[in-house]
Amino acid sequence: MTILVTGGAGFIGANFIHDWLADSNERIVNLDKLTYAGNLQSLASVAEDSRYRFVKGDIGDRALATRIFAEEKPRAVINFAAESHVDRSIHGPGEFVQTNVVGTFSLLEAARGYWLELPEAERSAFRFLHVSTDEVYGSLAAADPAFTETKAFEPNSPYSASKAASDHFVRAWHHTFGLPVLTTNCSNNYGPYQFPEKLIPLMIHNAVTGKPLPIYGDGKNVRDWLYVRDHCAAIRAVLAKGVVGETYNVGGKNEMTNLEVVHAICAILDELKPASHGYSQLITYVKDRPGHDRRYAIDPAKIERDIDWRPAETFASGIRKTVEWYLANEDWVCGVTSGEYSRWLDKNYKERVSA
Ligand code: NAD
Ligand code: TYD
């Protein structure tokens, strides 16, 4: 048996592939375009594994996806591929529409063409699992209840709007065509192999290189943090036990302000890599992100009850593992922070003068 993942050279996909190969003997094929966020170094240790195949390509290339379906006959697709960074979606939304909306549509069509030709038993066992985000639900006020699966979509950024659109296409392909889909909407992830444009790896990288730690606005925006391997376990569990056509919110009840997160990182660095100054002295308030969502929070009751999934890590254990991983993997960080990365820092932070 084989599964097809898209975007497997990115942060969550790479963790998913490592965990999959450690856990199962089933073959895994990875279709990834290798954008700035895709990095084969994250998968170097499995590159020669006979159960793993990498294909460089775009989920929007229907002919390529159709060929992979025909060659590999996967029993499931897990669609991780996306443009995923809110700040980049503000500077250039076009790629987000292209990959997240048009690309997902194209992949759905390739999957449907393949699925329709399957013998009955395989057709009913087939799954298209779409990996999405809690950001589709919009922003919460401090006293609002956490997001349930029935919360109306109110996306506020080009990124979340494009993910919301893709979720709607996935839903419609089930409702109209009967494609056996599943959707997961997860909160903010952190852990190994995350590109240092996102809050946690950016703060670790800046701290160890003695650079300012740029806090957008007042630093009191709240995110609901989940260790990446817990997200990967949730995806495996939903793939195995999820009810076709359903969506599942994934989160670890770990709401924290950005300032709390950055102070936690600084405290671990103070212990593991002491510097003459305390790391929290590097904290700098900078101009806020336009349209910055105030708070996200996941109500995971449905996935706990129906799928029996719960996170294994607390924030304290997960953030320590993450900081340790970045300290131990400077080669990986150097590999991804050359070239394009410095142009991004210029674009995103140059105009955010310290507040
Ligand atoms: P990422 O940006 O680290 O990786 C995305 C991967 O997709 C990269 O390997 C990139 O090369 C690939 N890709 C981009 N466009 C492609 C295309 N057109 N065709 C094929 N491959 C393409 O993203 P991530 O953080 O690993 O997120 C994976 C998925 O999970 C995304 O769909 C994202 O919306 C969702 N998600 C992320 C988080 C998070 O906190 N990171 C939380 C919830 C949901
Ligand atoms: P991010 O990791 O970009 O995830 P998302 O915007 O998808 O939640 O950002 C997490 C939070 O951290 C968000 O409230 C924005 C904030 N942030 C900063 O304060 N400074 C930074 O340099 C970055 C990248 C993010």
Structure description:
The chain has helices at 11-23, 62-72, 86-91, 94-116, 120-125, 158-177, 199-208, 228-241, 258-272, 301-307, 315-328, 330-336, 340-349, and strands spanning 2-6, 27-32, 52-56, 76-79, 127-133, 181-186, 189-190, 213-216, 222-224, 226-227, 247-250, 255-257, 283-286. The protein is α/β, with parallel strands linked by helices and 355 residues long. It has a domain at 2-194 and 227-253 and 291-313: Rossmann fold (3-Layer(aba) Sandwich). Strand 5 (127-133), helix 6 and strand 6 form a beta-alpha-beta unit. It binds nicotinamide-adenine-dinucleotide and thymidine-5'-diphosphate. Residues 86, 188, 198-199, 202, 214-216, 221, 223, 258, 289 line the site of thymidine-5'-diphosphate (TYD).
Q: How would the blueprint of this fold be written?
A:
Blueprint: E1 2-6, H1 11-23, E2 27-32, E3 52-56, H2 62-72, E4 76-79, H3 86-91, H4 94-116, H5 120-125, E5 127-133, H6 158-177, E6 181-186, E7 189-190, H7 199-208, E8 213-216, E9 222-224, E10 226-227, H8 228-241, E11 247-250, E12 255-257, H9 258-272, E13 283-286, H10 301-307, H11 315-328, H12 330-336, H13 340-349
Parallel strand pairs: 1-2, 1-4, 2-3, 4-5, 5-6, 6-11, 7-10, 8-13
Antiparallel strand pairs: 9-12
